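About this split. The held-out portion is used to measure sequence recovery: a designer receives only the structure tokens and must propose an amino acid at every position. Recovery is the fraction of positions where the proposal matches the reference. Here is one held-out target exactly as it appears in the evaluation file.
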């Protein structure tokens, strides 16, 4: 394939320059429009669907559709003073492209677009339809995919470049649960917590926790923000606050009890005190790991304290088991479950035919042996059947998704593009059916 490196970098710079945080609907739409314009300039068939929440970019034709699912929304950049360059400026520095979304998922989106463009120009006929499906709410509640899957035809098989190489055929489930506890202050003569705030999103380990004391003092703990799929790589400011407050002689209050509850039950990551049934870390020969719990949000809303907890649950753990465990916790601490959103775990058989082509594309490009890996995070692989995660993170690369100074090595972006080109060529430009 012929790769126009400078054009790909310029296209990514333009996309990173749009501050498309999921909650900013105008900016998210601008980012989607930008990607559709890139596709149109390359001669692809482009359409905005699902009420403007999803874009489709297509090449080729055939009875089968090879789907590639990406997203252009990003998480909040966090504390901008920790960035070495502005988060919404794509800067090439020491061989790396820095900026919010370079790795998750704007960089891979641009790599896929250029791979599709190269496939159009290689002179080979197409026997499949290739559809790039670009979402805008992947980092939040997936209302984009909810609408798309209800009202539009789905691809027969495909991948999302929103995980690790080689192939993520197993992915943990994801639950966001909000617990609510009533506030009840004790005698004002006693030192106590009267305010508590932490976190910015359900999928980011909080790097800041603030406590207001009854004597007017404010306490702040600073942790390290990382993706909640691997909370042990960061430092949860909620747990830091829980430990720090042990040094203060103060009266117990609703706020302190909530903080104690979170620290005591979840600082081990696995919620072992919740009484969940013990599970094996393997299922049908696949590594599925363990269920991981991360407190991510604390807010005071009226006369209640609301606590958000992100759960990455293993394939054999059920939503009912989790809800029963949280129900017991609420009963013990006098709270209630206020809101739950959940996405299922994924397991795609290793014997699925198109995966052989993905494996070959990876091996031919990298010289490495392909294998199957567990996806610890949440991706659009959960959105529809037959989808696996496939990159962009190569072996040895740092996973800095959702962190300050997010980046992708330029060499990795180029390698991604080549892998995706080989995958498109091997599937869409092959007469063989991959549905049988």
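Reference sequence for scoring:
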């Amino acid at each position: 394939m012929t790769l126009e490196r400078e054009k790909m970098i310029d296209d990514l710079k333009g996309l990173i320059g749009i501050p498309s945080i999921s909650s900013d609907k105008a900016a998210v739409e601008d980012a989607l429009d930008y990607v559709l314009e890139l596709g149109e300039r390359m001669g692809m068939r482009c359409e905005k669907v699902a009420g403007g929440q999803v874009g489709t970019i297509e090449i080729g034709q055939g009875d089968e559709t090879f789907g590639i699912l990406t997203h252009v929304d990003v998480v909040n950049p966090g504390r901008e003073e920790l960035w070495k360059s502005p988060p919404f400026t794509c800067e090439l520095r020491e061989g790396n492209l820095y900026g919010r979304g370079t790795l998750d998922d704007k960089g891979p989106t641009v790599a896929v677009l250029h791979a599709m463009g190269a496939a159009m120009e290689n002179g080979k006929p197409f026997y499949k339809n290739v559809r790039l499906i670009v979402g805008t709410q992947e980092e939040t509640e997936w209302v984009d995919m909810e609408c798309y899957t209800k009202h539009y035809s789905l691809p027969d098989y495909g991948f999302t470049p929103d995980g690790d190489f080689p192939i993520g055929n197993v992915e943990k489930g994801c639950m966001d649960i909000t617990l609510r506890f009533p506030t009840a202050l004790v005698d004002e003569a006693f030192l106590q917590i009267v305010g508590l705030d932490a976190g910015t999103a359900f999928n980011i380990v909080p790097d800041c926790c603030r406590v207001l004391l009854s004597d007017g003092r404010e306490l702040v703990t600073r942790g390290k923000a990382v993706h909640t799929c691997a909370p042990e790589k960061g430092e949860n400011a909620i747990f830091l606050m829980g430990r720090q407050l042990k040094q203060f002689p103060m009266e117990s209050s609703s706020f302190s009890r909530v903080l104690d509850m979170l620290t005591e039950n979840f600082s081990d990551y696995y919620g072992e005190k919740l009484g969940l049934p013990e599970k094996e870390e393997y299922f049908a020969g696949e590594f599925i790991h363990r269920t991981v719990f991360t407190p991510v949000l604390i807010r005071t809303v009226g006369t209640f304290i609301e606590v958000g907890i992100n759960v990455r649950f293993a394939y054999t753990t059920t939503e009912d088991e989790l809800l029963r465990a949280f129900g017991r916790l609420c009963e013990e601490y006098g709270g209630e479950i206020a809101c739950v959103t959940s996405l299922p775990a994924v397991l795609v058989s290793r014997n699925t035919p198109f995966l052989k082509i993905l494996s070959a594309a990876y091996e031919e490009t990298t010289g490495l042996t392909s294998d199957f890996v567990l996806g610890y995070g949440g991706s659009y692989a959960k959105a529809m059947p037959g989808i696996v995660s496939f990159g962009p993170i190569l072996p040895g690369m740092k996973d800095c998704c959702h962190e300050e100074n997010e980046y992708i090595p330029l060499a990795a972006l180029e390698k991604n593009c080549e892998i995706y080109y080989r995958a498109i060529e091997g599937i869409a430009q092959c007469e063989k059916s991959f549905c049988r």
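Annotator remark: The longest strand covers residues 173-182.
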